[in-house]
Description:
By secondary structure, the chain is mainly alpha-helical. It folds into two domains: 1-36, no CATH class; 43-97, no CATH class. The chain contains three helices and two strands; from the N terminus they run ββααα. The protein has helices at residues 43-53, 57-72, 84-97, and strands at residues 2-4, 10-12. A two-stranded antiparallel ribbon has the order 1-2. A hairpin with a 5-residue loop joins strand 1 and strand 2 (10-12). The longest helix is centred in the middle third of the chain and has 16 residues, at 57-72. The protein is elongated, with a radius of gyration of 18 Å.
Amino acid sequence: MEFRNLAGNTVMIDLGAEGQLAFALPDPAAEPGLGQVEEVRLLRKQIEALVRSSGDPAEAALSICVLLDEHLGLAEEGFFDDDDAVQDAILAARAADE
Length: 98
């Protein structure tokens, strides 16, 4: 796998090789640098923030559905017709925005 570090250099890591240290990628929002931080206006970054802030996968999924509806109008297209929980969350979010 290839990664780009803060200096812009490409670092290759062979996940199958023995003896390499385990590593964890830092929170991209906390690490400034080339190719790591995109503006929060990007939908992907907003979804990532929702997932990181939620300790519950069900809550994160609900928040993502609301976010997608805000950006793409999915409820109006019938994507959530069979999901009362998402419909309630969307209505609550719209009421909070007003």
